[in-house]
Specification:
Elements (H helix, E strand, L loop, with lengths): L18 H16 L3 E2 L5 E3 H5 L6 H4 L4 E3 L5 E4 L4 H11 L5 E10 L11 E10 L4 H18 L4 E7 L6 H14 L6 H4 L7 H4 L4 H6 L12 H17 L4 E2 L11 E9 L8 E7 L3 H4 L7 E7 H11 L11 E5 L4 H12 L4 E3 L6 H10 L4 E5 L4 E5 L7 E3 L4 H9 L1
Parallel strand pairs: 1-5, 7-8, 12-13, 12-14
Antiparallel strand pairs: 2-4, 3-4, 5-6, 6-11, 7-9, 9-10, 10-11, 14-15, 15-16
Helix pairs in contact: 1-5, 5-10
Bound molecules: histidyl-adenosine monophosphate (HAM).
The site of histidyl-adenosine monophosphate has 26 residues, from strand 6, strand 10, strand 11 and helix 12.
């Protein structure tokens, strides 16, 4: 018989390790819920055109999509990123603005698998549509900063820039293009032939050739129009007021093409540079229009759950929580009492488990010791006793009618 493994670039997360995923998502849900974001659940696949609106020159769209024709001949793709789906849903349903939504979802990118880079990864994120207020940018950026603080991460660096808008970016793009054309033969192999697609991406290239060639290139931050400059000043002042520290980084471009104005990335400095992007986001004030909707400003972020947990490992924080049971039921009388008593204990709100297969007293006791329960209820033909499993103590005989109350009393 052949055996199977999870597909290349994917992985299973088993309990108890998965408890960290659960806890991380629940922390995130609490944090963004308190800020007025509601959960948005959207399909894991969309018409491929939805994702193409993210920008044809991005690697995510050009090279990494898991796309295929379904049985009805529709060309669809598994979600490579979350923003396009949220904006598609916004344009389709036109909810009251501002519309503030959060999500947790698997994302699929056909990348070359390596540490921290998978073909299926998971993101938590938010998107806020319908307001161009710079203070909304501050709110959105402060959320991951708060999450990282709550997790105990200390070595997170926030890189921040503005990519301008339709008023100031086109002229800057031309200026940068002219600069790069003069130095085209000095760029890395990948970028020599690709500057026309998106010249800004060259600024983000990590290779030495591009870094050297663009050292003195014109910077968007020096070319912002008055409105973009005022917006960016307000964002910086807001972050300062909230005590969120950041580094202005005019070379920050990000891998997606929809960004306008405020753009940011959280870097986990405890990780190697190839996998240290813990999350990022920014404004995308033209994306709703690109999706066929009315002009609607928007901003959001996505955080990589696996990257965050790797950063937690590297900093030795937010370990796997110990999951504990309250009570374990052992029954040597045939199992009916275990069945009914376990159900009653759970109905009373206790965390209860039991042994199976009517095994010997010894085998069941071993299972109880192996479980994380604090107490065992032992059902024998002539009596029911409660015993402590983690510390020494007397076995206490209890009245069969009263077991749930007695267990509760012992736990207290
Ligand atoms: P992104 O930077 O492409 O942005 O992805 C967000 C985060 O997902 C990354 O910072 C990283 O932590 C994680 N990530 C991405 N690709 C992988 C991978 N192959 N393996 C493991 N983790 C990965 C977006 O997707 C935007 N939608 C974010 C956004 C929301 N911008 C505005 N709103």
């Amino acid at each position: 018989m052949p055996t199977f493994q999870a597909p290349k670039g994917t992985f299973d997360v088993l309990p108890p390790a998965s408890a960290r995923y659960e806890r991380l998502v629940s922390r995130f849900a609490g944090l963004v819920g308190r800020a007025g974001y509601g959960l948005l659940v959207s399909p894991m696949f969309e018409d491929v055109e939805v994702f193409r609106r993210v920008g044809e020159s991005t690697d995510v769209v050009r090279k990494e999509m898991f796309d295929f024709e379904d049985k009805g001949g529709r060309h669809v793709a598994l979600r490579p990123e979350g923003t396009a789906s949220v904006v598609r849903a916004y344009v389709e349903h036109r909810p009251q603005a501002p519309f503030k939504a959060w999500y947790v979802a698997p994302h699929f990118r056909h990348e070359r698998p390596q540490a921290g880079r998978y073909r299926q990864h998971h993101q938590v994120g938010v998107e806020a549509l319908g307001s161009a207020d710079a203070d909304l940018d501050v709110e959105v950026i402060a959320l991951p900063a708060q999450l990282f603080r709550e997790l105990g991460l200390q070595r997170i660096r926030l890189r921040l820039t503005s990519l301008g808008d339709d008023t100031c970016r086109p002229a800057y793009r031309e200026e940068l293009l002219a600069y790069l054309r003069e130095r085209q033969d000095q760029l890395c192999d990948e970028h020599q032939g690709r500057i026309e697609d998106n010249p800004l991406r060259v600024l983000d290239c990590k290779r030495e050739a591009c870094r050297t060639a663009t050292k003195d290139s014109p910077r968007m931050l020096d070319r912002l129009c008055d409105e973009c400059a005022a917006h960016f000043d307000r964002v910086k002042a807001g972050l300062d007021a909230l005590g969120v520290t950041y580094d202005i980084d005019p070379t920050l471009v990000r891998g997606l093409d929809y960004y306008t104005r405020t753009t940011f990335e959280f870097e986990a400095q405890a990780l190697d540079s190839s996998q240290n992007g813990a999350g990022g986001g920014g404004r995308y004030d033209r994306l709703a229009e690109a999706m066929g909707g009315p002009p609607t400003p928007g901003i959001g972020f996505g955080l990589g759950i696996e990257r965050i947990l790797l950063a937690c490992d590297a900093e030795g924080v937010f370990g796997v929580p110990e999951t504990t049971l309250d009570v374990f039921v052992i029954d040597t009388t045939g199992g009916e009492t275990a069945r009914d008593l376990t159900a009653a204990l759970r109905a009373a709100g206790l965390r209860a488990d039991r042994a199976w297969d009517n095994r010997s007293w010894k085998a069941q006791m071993k299972a109880a010791m192996h479980s994380t329960a604090a107490l065992a209820v032992v059902v024998e033909p002539e009596r029911i006793t409660i015993r402590t499993l983690r510390e020494k103590g007397e076995a206490e005989t209890v009245d069969g009618e009263n077991v749930v109350d007695q267990v509760r009393k012992r736990l207290a």
